[in-house]
UniProtKB/TrEMBL annotation:
Coiled coil: none annotated. NCBIfam families: 3a0107s01c2. PANTHER family: ABC TRANSPORTER I FAMILY MEMBER 17. It comes from the Bacteria. GO terms for biological process: phosphate ion transmembrane transport. It comes from Prosthecochloris aestuarii (strain DSM 271 / SK 413). Keywords: ATP-binding, Nucleotide-binding, Phosphate transport, Transport. One of its GO terms (molecular function) is ATP binding. Gene3D superfamilies: P-loop containing nucleotide triphosphate hydrolases. Signal peptide: none annotated. This is Phosphate ABC transporter, ATPase subunit. Residues 1-20 are annotated as: Disordered. Pfam families: ABC_tran (PF00005).
Length: 287
């Protein structure tokens, strides 16, 4: 399904409060944020291949700025492949190639002139397993800014504090910034990874199953953090957890076997899916 910025106003105003017997928790107070809504990433007939295998098939979609978009679907349906294409992480896989176009802010992500380092500065990523560098907490956060030429100590100190505050970690680590980040708990390490991504002032945050390795308390903290960041960043989150998708996102994309089957406001997709396949998936008829 094609969701475009033009159809956005229409779709958010669609009826989304149909009664549902499905056991999906959808906060009643979820409001659409202000100031967002432009097409931040645009996919046009965009396919991703591993060798001859088309893992993601001719996706047409606008990802709207400053909203949270969840990507759901059964294992192997292409969620991570699609997410990783947005900041060209798939380039690291030699057999991986694409067709069609994927645009970020009007520029072709796969264009000849695209600077991948700059692209990844603007489009940060957090992975399933927390992956702090074996360095101090300070140096983890300062790594990206230093890479982009910021070496002034006072500026770095400010960036580190600001990023850790945004990631809701400052209060827990402000007295041990010089300690090794690997000494933090898994949940703290994941928030550190969010802080590290935020330190270079990205526009988009890609979260690939960011809570699947975390306990429920740390998961709740990451979900709270997504809520805090909502409206300031365009956020895309791959998740296997439909409750989580319904809690944290404004829009949801449902993929099946590489095809974007349905893309709609989250509430609508979970309460009134248009496609039978979506209905079957969200009601647990297959997983
Ligand atoms: N490096 C790779 N080389 C070859 N095929 C791959 C590679 N990575 C993924 N695939 C294949 O591409 C398809 C999509 O995989 P992908 O990891 O994107 O799915 P997913 O929906 O994220 O799955 P999961 O929920 O299990 O993480 C699968 O068939 C997978 O086997």
């Amino acid at each position: 399904m094609l969701m475009t910025a033009e159809s956005h106003d229409k779709s958010v105003s669609m009826r989304t409060n149909e009664s549902s017997s499905r056991d999906i928790f959808i906060p009643e107070d979820r409001k659409m944020v202000h100031g967002g809504g432009k097409a931040h990433v645009v996919a046009k007939n965009f396919s991703i291949y591993y060798g001859d295998f088309e893992a993601v098939k001719k996706v047409n979609a606008d990802i709207l700025s400053k909203y949270v978009t969840a990507i759901i679907g059964p294992s192997g349906c292409g969620k991570s492949t699609f997410l990783r294409a947005i900041n060209r992480m798939n380039d690291l896989i030699p057999a991986c190639h694409t067709s069609g176009t994927l645009m970020f802010d009007g520029d072709d992500i796969y264009g000849k002139n695209t600077d991948e380092v700059l692209l990844r500065k603007k489009i940060g990523m957090v992975f399933q397993k927390p992956n702090p560098f074996p360095k101090s907490i300070f140096d983890n956060i300062a790594y990206g800014p230093r890479l982009h030429g910021i070496n002034d100590r006072k500026t770095l100190v400010e960036i580190v504090e600001k990023s850790l505050r945004k990631a809701a970690l400052w209060d827990e680590v402000s007295d041990r910034l010089d300690k090794n980040a690997l000494g933090l708990s898994g949940g703290q390490q994941q928030r550190l990874c969010v802080a590290r991504a935020l330190a270079v002032e990205p526009e988009i945050l890609l979260l690939d199953e960011p809570t699947s390795a975390l306990d429920p308390k740390s998961t709740a903290k990451i979900e709270d953090l997504i809520e805090e960041l909502r409206g300031s960043y365009t956020i895309m989150i791959v998740t296997h957890n439909m409750q989580q998708a319904s809690r944290v996102s404004d829009y949801t994309m449902f993929f099946y076997e590489g095809v974007l089957v349905e893309y709609a406001p989250t509430k609508q997709l979970f309460t009134n899916p248009k496609d039978q396949m979506t209905e079957d998936y969200i009601t647990g008829r297959f997983s």
